[in-house]
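Supplementary notes for students who missed Thursday's class. We covered one full example, reproduced here. Read the sequence, then the structure, then the short commentary at the end.
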Amino acid sequence: MIINPIIPIWLMIVVCAIFILLIVLRSKSMYSIIRRIIIISLLFIINVRFMFPSDNIQVTTSNLNVLFVIDTTLSMLAEDGRRGNTRFSGMQSDALAIVEELEGANFSIITFDNHSRTLIPFTRDMRLVRETINTISIVDQMGAVGTAFDVPVNNMLEAVRRSNNMGNRKTIIFLMTDGEYTIDGVIQSFREISRYIDGGAVLGYGTPGGRTYVVLGRGDAIYYGPYKRKELVKSYSL
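Structure (token representation):
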């Protein structure tokens, strides 16, 4: 419990003492004296403003834009996620938890594998956001050509510029990936994006030895992996 008095307590004590003294001197009825002292006591308690701290805080997110950038490459199906589930299922659970925590904000979703695509622009339609997260699909194994987590940079830049033009709003990004990078070449910088955002996080999934269970066209099944991984958070953070 804490106190946050409107008038300093010492001053309130002086004022209340003066009032009580006047009441005692001027009132002829004991009942009247007691009633007025009770009223003054209640005023003193109200002024003290007793407060009880709580962790259950309602956060206002109405001026917040949240951009999810979600890895949908084949390696996200590796079965080394939480409780033996896939990396991708863990990512979906985390995304839904963030939506729940920041409900009231605007959300946009970008996915990337061989290509990058904006699934939904910034919206406050929570039902659409949740349904989109639940229905995101991984790239088809026959069409996968490798992984490069800088594929969505241009779409991300377009989204944060659009967010920046929406008025007095904060923009944060959650880049959700397993950090795998299998395509040769120079990694495109995220630096330009940082000019338009107020924060965010890179959420990583999986382990270096994760394998992906894939069903082939004839109904046969094989495991792909383990996968080559590079440090994403240290070297390529937003």
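Commentary. The CA atoms of residues 70 and 111 lie 5 Å apart. Residues 216-238 have pLDDT under 50 and may be disordered. If anything here is unclear, bring it to office hours.
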